[in-house]
């Protein structure tokens, strides 16, 4: 399948490599000329501007992988107004506001264009080697691309979630859960680090990841992080508020559902902006292993 990837950042670039490895043709675009040059060096086809797509007569599948919010919304508007034509499929694979996705879907549908809101999980590793996709939007468009999504996902990593907005809403809750789990792991290892016992945290993480009830991918990543640097002093200790937890809170208030852990996670994030903690070092080290954090210089 031929696909146009708009946005070649840390996720878009790796997704493009994943797609090519699985037999798909990817044409890329990014405003960063250095990234585009590197993309070309790796023998990918590129376009110099989004507007070039309006000259393509054949049916197009356009995947937008940009930072959520203003940049994504303005790009989708440009695609809707000037680039996409009837029968095309447009995908937003970022962490967009699900309410924005509902509006985009309605606007695209008026022009006969299918829109899919796709929550993408797995970080940069998943983008490159097989991600988890939560896909909302036009069901016919999903069915048309179902095998494509399965080809670039981890095994059993694709779920069609229903009407527009449902994919991005599911990703919001997924991320809120993730941030809460990171907080719990950070607090646990912080307590072990401060205890009167001389624990080797790498060995603890290895034991837990191999045999304990709390084993899982995050514990695997904890072991990887402690294996590289037991002190975890190569990461910042400031963690900014989670937009996912904020959005999950808003939805919870509207639905009258208590979500105390999401609330606590946000409060603890705010604490990191005032006080250095080993817990925050653990969290940022895990975020780095996932691929969503840059080490301090």
From TrEMBL:
Keywords: Gluconate utilization, Oxidoreductase, Plasmid. GO terms for biological process: D-gluconate metabolic process. Residues 167-276 form the 6-phosphogluconate dehydrogenase C-terminal domain. The keyword Transmembrane helix does not apply. SUPFAM superfamilies: 6-phosphogluconate dehydrogenase C-terminal domain-like, NAD(P)-binding Rossmann-fold domains. Residues 5-154 form the 6-phosphogluconate dehydrogenase NADP-binding domain. GO terms for molecular function: oxidoreductase activity. NCBIfam families: gnd_rel, PRK09599.1. This is Decarboxylating 6-phosphogluconate dehydrogenase. It comes from Ligilactobacillus salivarius.
């Amino acid at each position: 399948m031929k696909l146009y990837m708009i946005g070649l950042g840390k996720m878009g670039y790796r997704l493009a490599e994943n797609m090519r490895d699985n037999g798909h043709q990817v044409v890329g675009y990014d405003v960063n000329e250095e990234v585009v040059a590197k993309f070309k060096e790796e023998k990918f086809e590129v376009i110099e501007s989004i507007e070039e797509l309006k000259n393509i007569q054949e049916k197009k599948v356009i995947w937008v992988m940009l930072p959520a919010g203003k940049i994504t919304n303005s790009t989708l508007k440009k695609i809707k107004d000037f680039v996409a034509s009837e029968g095309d499929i447009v995908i937003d694979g970022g962490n967009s506001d699900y309410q924005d996705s509902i509006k985009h879907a309605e606007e695209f549908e008026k022009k006969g264009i299918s829109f899919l809101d796709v929550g993408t999980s797995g970080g940069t590793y998943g983008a490159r080697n097989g991600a988890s996709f939560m896909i909302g939007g036009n069901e016919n468009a999903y069915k048309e691309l179902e095998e494509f999504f399965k080809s670039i996902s981890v095994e059993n990593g694709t779920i069609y979630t229903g009407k527009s907005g449902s994919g991005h809403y599911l990703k919001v809750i997924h991320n809120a859960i993730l941030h809460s789990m990171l907080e719990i792991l950070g607090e646990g290892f912080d307590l072990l680090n401060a205890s009167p016992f001389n624990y080797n945290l790498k060995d603890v993480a290895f034991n837990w990841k191999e045999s304990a009830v709390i084993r899982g991918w995050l514990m695997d990543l904890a072991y990887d992080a402690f294996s590289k640097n037991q002190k975890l002093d190569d990461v910042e200790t400031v963690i900014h508020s989670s937009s996912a937890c904020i959005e999950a809170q808003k939805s919870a208030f509207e639905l009258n559902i208590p979500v105390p852990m999401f609330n606590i996670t946000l409060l603890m994030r705010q604490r990191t902006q005032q006080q250095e903690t080993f817990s925050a070092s653990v969290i940022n080290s895990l975020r780095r292993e996932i691929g969503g954090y840059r080490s301090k210089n």
